[in-house]
Structures are given as structure tokens and as C-alpha cells.
Write the C-alpha cells for this entry.
Amino acid sequence: MIEQLLTKTLQNAVKEIYGQELPKKLSQIQKTRPEFEGDLTIVVFPLLRISRKGPEQTAEELGQYFVEKSKEVDSFNVIKGFLNLVISNTYWHGFFEASGNDKSFGFINPAESAPMVVEFSSPNTNKPLHLGHVRNNLLGESVSEILKASGQNVVKVNLVNDRGIHICKSMLAWQKWGEGKTPETEDMKGDKLVGDYYVKFDKEYKKEIESLIQKGSTKEEAELNAPLLLQAKQMLKQWEEGEKGVRELWAEMNGWVYAGFDVTYKRMGIDFDKTYYESDTYLLGKTIVEEGLEKGIFFKKDDGSVWCDLTADGLDEKLLLRADGTSVYMTQDLGTAQLRYDDYHPSDLIYVVGNEQNYHFDVLKLVLKKTGRAWAENIHHLNYGMVELPDGKMKSREGTVVDADDLMDEMFETAKRTTEELGKFDNFTFEESKHLYNILSQGALKYFILKVDPKRNMTFNPQESIDFNGHTGPFIQYTHARIKSVLRKAAEAGIEITKMDAVDFKPETKEKSLLRMLHEYPQIIKQSADTLSPALIANFVYDLAREFNQFYHEFSILKDANNSERNFRLGLSAFVGNTIQSAMGLLGIVVPERM
């Protein structure tokens, strides 16, 4: 692309004019600021140590060289220490003709290399997917697609946390108060049914704590000795020992949850190449712990619990096995990491997990490295901030979490109400309207979440997310439908979009602005992949849609008397439409053909 060409010319200029090689770090090329004339700007200040001249003189000398030696540069101007280059219409014509109809524009073919394994979702089988899972799933899916677009070989995996004390809490509550209820008898999704009993456990557990406190126990003693918790711990021990009745109940209730998860995943457009289960990985984790214990890497306390001392690494002592021999999260994550390595020998292991687990992943890498697993260095934690609603935080145990299915239902109704109020879609059939509302609601939800940098906390506002005139998915979707409408009308009028001769190619300011933005798309994909941030794609495609709408209102397209200009504008519109569809696809968002 043009940046590489200009960098090469700049290197040649420095060598010919000043007799020195240009270090790569001194080559700074950026977009020209809107208030100045030009397309790309070279920052001259870092070069003064080589030129031994003032910034203006250095910039003038380099500018003259570019105009004389580079066919890509038409002219230049100097603003203090900034050399602003005007790229030639010949270059923009070549770019437009080469890329305008390329449906894979910006994408790099996957390399024959070790895969990048991306783990996301990681639900617990004691509750339905909620708003926090929505951000996790959307990030994981989008990051995976962006990495693929950047040429990476990607494997998407899910780790289902299907065992542990929290699972036993739901099981125990169902045993005590379920009265044989099933998803079929209650006509409800299985993950919701099981989640209700997780909430029931917490309510009854709190009652027991209060009762023990009234009888003289401290709060800490009551929390540890409440009968329900002791029973749940006993059930976990029975599960790990393979007790038949506990295992059968566990399998049945997990089956209910998996069926519920599948419905939610399908609705969100999420899929995986492989699913791991904690029940299959924790034993390997235990083996790794035993191995480390034998080698003296870990140590056992008097109560029989196994620990890893990380104090010399600036952390603390980390529990790996409880005193009763049952495993903890770290145990299964050790086993899962080893399984992933054995399965794929990946170049990177990327975990999409909330930032409250930063410490956990620091420990995971350290523990694995201490056991001699050098590949642990390739573990990367894509941490993300919390997502809340305008009325505050959510808590699973207290039943105040916003269910993902309920949220999507609300988004559908909001999309339906908003579009009907606008009154622009009255010519749709019932099924077409339903399909459109689904596309808009999913686009609104996904875009609103993905436009925020992953590391930032965010507040999700359903009503704000569906605004057709705001920084939203529906605004971009509507822009795409507008472009498709223009192209349909052109086809109906028998207008054939033909190539434009370079000599006639003289784009107006807005047209050139769109070309510049389109030209950036491959680099945006690369930056997004490097930083694991779909927000870069999301904000790029919004800016592109906004710029197109300004162009659309400023220029006539179909009614232009000059056929050459008309064809160019139609071709440019199609190029923008294809790029919007491509970029939104990387966010997991479908764009409609008409609205």
C-alpha cells in the first residue's frame, strides 16, 4: 500500500540527500490532519539529527525529492516540522480499479502455520448465559474473525465449567425443592430452570447463616458451617469419587443446561470448533499438581492441601488442591492448558476472560512455567471490563443478572417499536419485518458492545443502542441498505457501471475522502488483530458510514449528467457498501439489503 511505498522513498531520500541509512523507528508517516491540505504526513522532527538542518528546510528538501522521484506524490506543503504529501489521482485511480470490486479486500489468506487458539464463553452449568457472557461471546467471536482476516489460522474453543461446588449447589437445591420438575414439565429452557435453583440455594443458605448467628456463631463461622454448604461440599466429594447417584443427577441437569445454551448461542451467531469440559480436564490438572509435588515445585501443608509458593515472583502462595483432595479452578486450568497444547501446539493461547481474573492468569502462566512448560509464555489474557446496565451491577446468586435471552427479546421489541414509529418499512411482509427486526436488534446489541475498547468498563443502554441517527449498528445497517437501494435503481434503469479512464479520474474532496478511508481498511484490520480490539473495526465502519451519508447528501449519483462521474460514484458507493458489509461481518453483524 501507499505507506510502504512512501517509506521506501523516504529511505532513499535520506540516503541520497544526507548520505545516511534511515533507521526504521525514525520513519513516521500518519494521516494528514483535516485542517491541512494533503493525504499523508511525514513527521520531520526525528530526522533532524540526520539532516542537521532546521525542520522547514529538511521538509522542503524531502518534499522536492518526493515530487521528483515518486509518481505517487503530486505535490507537498510544509507546516513547521510536518511534510504533508498530496497523493496523485493516478494512484487513487489504480487503487479504486484494483480493489473496488474485490469482495475480500483487506483480508489476508490464512497462513499454513500453528494455530491461534481462542477460548471464550466459558459458562458455568448452574445458570443461563447473562449480559456479562454476551460481551465475552461477542468479543471472542469477533476477535477470532478479525484474526482470520489478518491471515491467522484460528481455532475457537469453549471451556464449559460443568463441575465444582457451584454446580453442586444447584443440584442440591433441586434435590431438596425441585419436586421432580424438568424443562419439559415447566415449559422453560433448561439453563433457566437450573439457574432458578442456584438462586434458591443462596436464599436458603442465607437463612441458615442468619439462624446460626442468632444462636451465637460469628458470621464467618456461620458461613463455613451452614448445613447447606456442608452438604454441597459433601456432594462435590461424592462427585469426584464417582458416586453413581450424584453423577447421574449431574449428567441429567447439565444436559438440560446444554440444550438451553445451544439455543442462545445459535441466536447470537456463536459457534466453536471444539468444546472442552472441566470434568474432563481437572484430572489432568491433578496429575500436573502431583508431578510438581514430587519434583518439589509445589508443597503440601499440614492439612493435606497442596500449594505453589509464588512470593519470590511478587505474588503469594496459590492453592492447587484442597485438603480433602478436591480440585480448584487453577487445577482444571492447568489441565486444560496442557490439553490445548497437546491438541494444537498453538502459536498463542488467548483467553477471553474478564479483568477480575488478571491475577488468575498471571498465576497460571507462572505455575506452568515452573513445571517446565516453556510454551506457557504464549498464553495471553484478553481481559475486558465489566458491563452494567443503567441501574447498576448484577449478581448471579441473588437472581439480579440480566438473562441473555431476555435481553435479546427486549432488543427485538425495541427494534420493532422504533422501526414502526419511523414508518419507513410498511411495505414489508410479516416475515420480512420479523427478519429485519431480528437483524437490527442483533446489530444494535453487538455494535454497542463491540464499539467500546475491551479493557473499558461499559454501561449498556438498550434504547440508546437502537438509535438510527446515533453511533449505532442500525445507523450503519441503514447506510448499507441505502447504498443497495441506489445500486438497485441503477440496475433497474439499465445503467452499467464501467471502468473509468485514468485521465478522467478527478475525484471531488468528499469522494477522495471516502477513497482515503477505504484505503485504510486493511491497516485497520491489522491493527485490530494486533491489539485484539474489535473497537477499531467498529469505529472505522461508523466513520465510513457517516462519511458516505455526507457524500450522498452533497452529490447527485444517479442523476449526474456526466456518465463518467455517475459511473465512478456508483462504483464508489458499491465499494463502500462492500466494505461496510465486510467490516460489520467481522463484528458478527448482518447488514440488510433493504430497509
Q: What stands out?
A: The first strand starts at residue 29 and ends at 31. Residues 393-399 have pLDDT under 50 and may be disordered. Residues 262 and 271 are 9 Å apart (CA to CA).
